[in-house]
Write a structure and sequence with these properties.
The protein is of the alpha/beta class. It folds into 2 domains: 19-169, 3-Layer(aba) Sandwich (Rossmann fold); 184-545, L-fucose Isomerase, Chain A, domain 3 (Alpha-Beta Barrel), CATH 3.20.14.10. It contains 15 helices and 18 strands. The strands form 4 sheets. It has a 6-stranded antiparallel barrel, surrounded by 4 helices. A 5-stranded parallel beta sheet has the order 2-1-3-4-5. Helix 2 runs parallel beside helix 3 (103-111), helix 6 (189-205) packs across helix 15 (521-537) and helix 8 (241-249) packs across helix 10 (282-302).
Length: 554
């Protein structure tokens, strides 16, 4: 028998009973990690102070990297190396002050046996809470136990108490008395029948979800396994972003100028400049117009009912940003595009629902929403937003807590005050988008909305949904919120009914939230119940969050 030798890694060093290990998952892009590092350092100092109050020491499980000028785990391979040296029984804190790629640390967290706490700053400028919500949705999908905590500085009385609870028990809880299973809600028979009929129609006739490369920015929670998605009657058509790039290069200049002229004619503003490295240029916008045409033609070729473009990795090195494209696709009234043989106008008079960042949960939600609202004669334009941040209104307009819903792309002009006349395209931040490209920016109009999220738990689709209103704030307050987040992106000022800030954070299983308008409060109430019934008919576990507009429980 031949002899062989297997090298064995040394056992991870055991930590003391009063020590907690810290890991920090970051971006895949070096510039983003460097820009976000000061915010991460500040968060970690706050966590050190917070744990010290309870007599515990916080220890970094991986070092600062002088050559790269940051201390984030910035790839999956690095994350695997880091976790090889972590005691799998150790108390572990994942501290997030910025957007993070879950894939960097998912392998380690799946194998970790000790208590896990996800901790995020409460900041609009640095979206740690957004990254944490993505990670929580991903761990929920993976069946990993974890706790969550968020705070502005982790020394306030509430967060100190929560930290102490976790350090004592290995888990902490938050109030979730705002949720009601749909089975406990009396849905009017007509609304239940309509929802069930729409679900049965989708399962019978089936639909195609066009996916331009899966797994954007490490969002494990945004991928629906085929065997689960197929139970709803929706099936993926896996498309390549390289094909979209090629198709974009085949669109004629004259066609792109027609799209640009159409938008200008409807009153849309493009903030153009001469320097392509820092400004939005006309060439960038015309290339985006070509991508818009190419996306519609590819969707038509493959019979897609909804599509999602990943963009942030791969395509960003070849083309300007896809955000203008995504927002236009989600609008019913948009530049007409003919088929390659010029015989048909594609998706005439209706959106081609687009799910930003290839979030397939949002894609399925958007398709369901479109069909429900079309059947009810309600506005069909819907979009996802980041659950980006929230704050009390400082203008005195309302004494309610106002969320900032904000997304890089996807928001349709139908949602904006003034429609296209209220829409502005500004260059994407160079830190993320080297080749530029314009956003589709606007202020969402006041009105009644339904919000929702589809996620995976225990290998099954779930939907949470609730009601909210969009409020109009003075421009000065809107600008404050934009400057506290990302001023190039569209913004929605949302007040959730019967769901506090902390209840939303504790329950929501994603960085994204889907929103759609209704013509009034009663219509929104009806649309929510029909949508809930459709989702349940498709096999989802459905939960209503918060309350009706008048404060009555569901």
């Amino acid at each position: 028998m031949s002899k062989y030798k297997i090298s064995v890694l040394p056992r991870p060093k055991k930590v003391k009973s009063d020590q907690v290990l810290l890991v920090a998952s970051g971006d895949l892009r070096l510039a983003a990690n460097q820009e976000g590092w000061p915010a991460q350092k500040a968060l970690e100092r706050e966590l050190v102070r917070g744990l010290r109050i309870s007599g515990f020491e916080l220890i970094r499980a991986h070092p600062y990297k002088p050559r790269e000028r940051h201390g984030f785990i910035s790839s999956q391979k690095e994350g695997m190396r880091v976790f090889r040296e972590i005691d799998p029984e150790a108390w572990l804190m994942v501290a997030e002050a910025v957007w993070q790629y879950t894939q960097h640390i998912l392998a380690g967290l799946l194998a970790h046996r000790g208590p896990i706490l996800l901790a995020a700053n409460w900041s609009g400028e640095w979206p740690g809470l957004v990254g944490m919500l993505n990670l929580s949705g991903s761990l929920t999908k993976a069946g990993v136990k974890y706790s969550m905590l968020w705070s502005e500085d982790f020394t306030d009385q509430a967060s100190v108490k929560k930290l102490a609870q976790w350090l004592k028990r290995g888990h902490l809880t938050h109030r979730l008395d705002h949720i009601t299973p749909l089975d406990e809600v009396k849905v009017p028979a007509s609304q239940r029948r309509l929802g069930q009929a729409l679900g049965a129609q989708l399962q019978r006739e089936k639909a195609i979800m066009g996916v331009f490369d899966e797994g954007c920015m490490g969002m494990f929670n945004a991928i629906i396994p085929d065997h689960i998605l197929g139970t709803t009657g929706v099936y993926k058509e896996r498309l390549s972003q390289s094909s979209l790039y090629y198709a974009t290069t085949q669109v004629r200049d004259s066609e792109a100028r027609q799209v640009y002229g159409w938008l200008k004619g409807r009153g849309m503003t493009f903030k153009l400049g001469p320097n392509e490295k820092t400004d939005l240029t006309l060439d960038q916008v015309l290339t985006q117009c070509k991508m818009y045409i190419a996306a519609l033609r590819m969707a038509d070729e493959f019979g897609c009912d909804t599509i999602g473009i990943q963009y942030q990795q791969g395509l960003k090195d070849l083309l300007p940003a896809s955000d203008l494209v995504e927002g236009l696709l989600n609008n019913s009234h948009r530049p007409p595009v003919r088929s390659g043989d010029s015989k048909r106008i594609l998706y005439r008079g209706r959106p081609l629902p687009h799910f930003n960042e290839v979030d397939e949960c949002a894609g399925l939600d958007g398709l369901i929403t479109y069909r429900v609202h079309k059947a009810l004669g309600q506005p069909v334009e819907n979009t996802l937003h980041d659950l980006r941040w929230g704050d009390w209104d400082r203008s005195g307009t309302t004494d309610e807590y106002v969320w900032v819903f904000e997304i890089s792309g996807g928001a349709p002009p139908a949602h904006f005050i003034g429609g296209y006349k209220g829409a502005v395209s500004e260059r994407q931040p160079p830190m993320y988008f080297r080749l530029g490209g314009g956003t589709l920016k606007g202020i969402s109009r006041p009105g009644e909305i339904v919000w929702s999220r589809i996620y995976i738990e225990k290998n099954k689709l779930n939907m949470d949904l609730g009601r909210a209103k969009v409020v109009r704030l003075p421009l000065q307050e809107t600008q404050r919120r934009w400057q506290s987040t990302t001023p190039q992106w569209p913004i929605m000022h949302a007040v959730t009914y019967g769901v506090s800030r902390d209840q939303m954070m504790a329950r929501h299983k994603s960085n994204h939230i889907q929103v759609v308008y209704a013509t009034d409060a009663n219509s929104a109430h009806t649309a929510l119940l029909v949508k809930a019934a459709m989702a349940q008919g498709l096999g989802m576990t459905v939960t209503l969050c918060g309350c009706r507009k008048d404060g009555r429980p569901w």
